[in-house]
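Assess the record.
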Amino acid sequence: MGDLNGRKAVLFGGGGFIGRHVVQRLTRAGAMVVIPSRRPGLLAGLRPLGEVGQVVPVAADIHDDASVSRAVAGADIVINLIGILAPGRGGGFDAVQHRAAERIARAAHAAGARHFVHISAIGADAASPSAYARSKAAGEAAVSAAFPGAVILRPSIVFGPGDGFFARFGRMAWLLPFLPLIGGGHTRFQPVHVGDVADAVLAALVVPAARGRIHELGGPQVYSFRALLAYTCRQAGVPHRLLLPIPFALARIQAFFMEMLPGKPLTRDQVELLKCDNVVSGALPGLAALGVRPTALELVVPTYLKPPGGAH
């Protein structure tokens, strides 16, 4: 989408789930892609996504002003995809999703970059009881202040091979006798395909009306949490797996212990997030405004979510 031939694009978070798809689209459009990372050696697998020398991982620390400034030097395009679902060794919510986002936007503006795209999330809210949602809102405000004209994209849950929802719950469905329906499973979601999010990032660079605006990205249909888990079980080959309703209060107690486990399978902050629907509001532009037609999850999820052995 668009012609970015020879333009330098610096992509923070390029080694992540969404990042790999954005790298593909940037290279196809002809951009030179620089991917800052604490461990650039682990991103060698991204180099084949472009021509020789077109994808360049570099060492950078998102928590250091000078390091970020060096990473964005000479950039025409800066894209920030960095986000976390739980605090970890790379920092807490505020450090990563607010302060680091502000640092990157400020450095991009100082470097003379013409375009800045920032990935946030539906549910970003400064008044939310969730620290994740508050940090996303703070990051949006800081980015907009530091880089006037920045495009902010708020996706719902993102699906695709290797995602953190269907693939994760699919594995749980194979291993556990039941899946937890936190809060009764009434929370609504509007899953959006990772390829559509990547297309939206590229469109944000070339659609003039996108500049300086927030876009909410959702798929073509809204589902309840219960419906999504039931669908996941069917695709995983365990259609009769028990879906067990768990009140929010009990889920918080369980999360207190589960967030101490490796990988933090469930946190109290995630329980808070599940109290609010994760769907587009309709008050902000979405995929259509960026010229992207949303992909139905039923066309994609069955291609990667299969029973062990691959037979239904």
About this structure: The two ends are 37 Å apart (CA to CA).
